[in-house]
Amino acid sequence: MADDSDAIPGRMTVLLSSWVFIFASIFLLAEFIAIHEASPTTCNVLGTLSDLGWAIGFILLIDWLVFHIFPAFGASRRALTGATLKLIASVLFLLQPVAGLLAPSYGLPGVGIPWSNLVGILFFHAGNCVDAVGMCFSFDTKAPLAWWNWPALGMWVYCAATWLLVAGNAIFFFSIAAPWGPGVDVGGAAQHVEALQEGGASLLLIGSVIYTAWASRAREMNTQTDTSPMISPLAYGSDP
Question: Which UniProt keywords apply (predicted)?
Answer without folding.
Answer: Membrane, Transmembrane, Transmembrane helix
